[in-house]
Design a protein that fits this description.
Layout: H1 8-27, H2 31-43, H3 52-59, H4 63-72, H5 76-79, E1 98-105, E2 110-115, E3 130-139, E4 144-149, E5 162-168, E6 174-179, E7 212-219, E8 232-237, E9 240-246, E10 249-255, E11 259-264, E12 268-270, E13 275-277, E14 292-297, E15 306-317, E16 322-327, H6 333-341
Antiparallel strand pairs: 1-2, 1-16, 2-3, 3-4, 4-5, 5-6, 6-7, 7-8, 8-11, 9-10, 11-14, 12-13, 14-15, 15-16
Helix pairs in contact: 2-4, 3-4
Length: 351
């Protein structure tokens, strides 16, 4: 004779009781001990990306674990730590820069971006860094394209690691920056002929991929060959970050706030050294026409008005093929890298 079936409602109550018992058991772990475990887990990436699933798994154990995870794992603008891939598209901190460096391979037209892991101003000489992104330069006739990827060994638009690209005009003095992901909710993909659908889902798996125009970099002409360094003007789409908490986990959303205009900080002529100089605070040691500092304009209707104290991007040479790159809010690591890539290459009309 068959055993009587347990009513569905009773079965659900029993399952819920078991789940509650399991949650209570894990919730007994001291929050201080759990916080230390999560801090070590977040810091364990070193030169490699930590597995985000490990942090997410910890946060999914119970409500207390979610609360602790939310207090430990902070977004980039607050923590200043590039822990996850999504941080590459988030604006940097406001009060201090993220220190990175770029290694160039002239032979293969490759550029590698690393996050510095030490506080040494000359870190590229001794610091291996954490690999962030790579770019490869391609010639498309007269214009030049830099394809940016999360994969240092496979850099192409069809790759799942595709992040975006930088494309120059005929003279190599005007550049457009394209992001593989929409910079804000409701953004429309560019209508250029180079648009394709990509499988890049590693940074924002919940949104579609394409080519979204997020910025322009222009170098002013110097046809009279007057004495002085390059002059730059950048117009960037830098969305503000709206941060909300859902089930004690950070959810990032973006909204459009208009264009941010940046221009190079004007250097001063040094009579004794007979050269143009900028104060890079020890982060740049080799004179180069590529060196620059970008500052935000104080009045968008007058791009020449700037706040000299607000340097949002600094780029300069420290070795034959090593350059430092320091950025902060409102730029992301991807945007800063793309702007720096535009500085490479000869610009006959601008210098």
């Amino acid at each position: 004779m068959a055993a009587p079936l347990v009513p569905r409602e009773e079965g659900l109550r029993q399952e819920g009781a078991v789940e509650q018992e399991e949650e209570d058991r894990w919730a007994c772990l001291l929050p201080e001990l759990l916080a230390e475990v999560l801090r070590r887990l977040e810091a364990s990436g070193g030169e490699r990306w930590p597995a985000r699933k490990d942090v997410v798994s910890c946060a999914c154990v119970c409500r207390r674990w979610r609360d602790v995870a939310a207090t430990v794992v902070r977004p980039l603008p607050e923590s200043g730590k590039i822990t996850f891939l999504a941080s590459l598209k988030q604006p940097g901190p406001k009060d201090f820069p993220i220190q990175c460096f770029i290694k160039r391979n002239k032979k293969n037209s490759l550029f590698y971006l690393y996050l510095g892991l030490t506080n040494n101003p000359m870190m590229p000489a001794t610091d291996k860094g954490k690999f962030l992104m790579a770019a490869k330069r391609f010639r498309r006739g007269a214009p030049t394209e830099y394809i940016i990827s999360l994969d240092a060994d496979d850099i192409s638009q069809g790759n799942k690691a595709y992040v975006g690209k930088l494309r120059s005009d005929f003279l190599g003095t005007n550049f457009k920056i394209y992001d593989s992901q929409p910079p804000y909710d409701g953004a429309k993909a560019s209508s250029t002929r180079s648009i394709r659908r990509f499988g890049s889902r590693r940074i924002s798996p919940q949104v579609s991929s394409g080519n979204f125009d997020v910025g322009q970099v222009s170098y002013k002409y110097n046809l009279l060959k007057s004495r002085g360094p390059r002059r730059m003007l950048c117009t960037m789409e830098c969305p503000s970050v709206q941060e909300t908490w859902e089930n004690s986990l950070k959810v990032m959303s973006f909204r459009q706030t208009g264009s941010t205009i940046l221009r190079n900080n004007a250097p001063r002529w040094h009579e004794h050294l007979q050269c143009w100089c900028l104060n890079f605070h020890g982060r740049v040691t080799v004179a180069s026409v590529k060196n620059f500092q970008l500052v935000a304009t104080t009045d968008t209707s007058h791009p020449d008005s700037v706040d000299d104290a607000e340097i949002v991007l600094q780029f300069g040479k420290v070795g034959d093929d090593i350059f430092t790159m320091d950025y902060r809010q409102p730029l992301s690591a991807f945007q800063a890298f793309a702007i720096c890539l535009s500085s490479f290459g000869t610009k006959l009309a601008c210098e």
